[in-house]
Known about the structure:
Helix content: 25-40%
Radius of gyration: 18 Å
Amino acid sequence: MNNFVITTRSMDGNGNFGNEVGETQFIEVPDTEKIEYTKQHVVGKDNWLKDVLQGSPADILIYVHGFNNGMNDVLTRHNTVKTELVANGYQGKVISFDWACGQSVMLYLEDRHKADLVCIRLINDCITILNQQQTNGCTANVHVLAHSTGAYIVREAFGGSNISSSDASTFKWQVAQCVFVAGDISSDSMDLSQKDIYGFYEHVVRVTNYYNPYDEVLKISNSKRLGFSPRVGRVGLPQDTPSKCVDINCGNTYNAIPQKGGLTYGHAWYFDPSNNQIFMKDLAYTIMGNIDRNYIPTRTRIDDDRFTLNG
């Protein structure tokens, strides 16, 4: 089985992808290959789309990675998400939206700029072409899973605050479930008092936000933004959000993990197969939607639309 990727990385004369922003390319990589993909893995958009829709999947999940992810990191986490969701009953497809970023934590601000450049690609070269298939008889629900800076890309793309109206697709599109994991965006930016947030909420049916109060990477992100903007992946959603939003505190689960290593682990443990079983099970329930959000067994309700992930 192939791994499906849409990449915005630049390509050099030898057919190797780099860390700068280039043309959008459609990629298929056999899941037995844990390598950096090259030109040999590029396929035409129509053939790529045909392969994605083969078997008439009920759900299609788009994974948008965070900053400081190389191609091997993207493929490794792609396989983790796909394998563990399938193990928990998921029968759909997984697509990775691989945006051009560096491979150093020192390049955070540079990666943020690259994220701005590719926001509209997520809409026009990914979500829209999948949504349009519904007019051709495809009944798959399209979902988005965004980690770290990936949440910034999704929020900006869906809200349209940094793209011109001439860029945006005129096709009316929507995703069924938008999931933020360790989201590197301001919690306040999701508040209904923000004028540019209404476009975001119009494009989603449900929003689920997983956050970890012990995420040290997002503490650093705060400091890079002058310490005035607590991140949604560290403190959760603000109070004033639509009822379509669900907030899940993962702090108890994280504290129960026996092996925690390094400053970045609290930000990335969601993708560690040795410690993420409860999270992945909850994510599978969330994406498949067979159980009402108030009765998903891997979480405990605190109050309306706020939960803790079971430890």
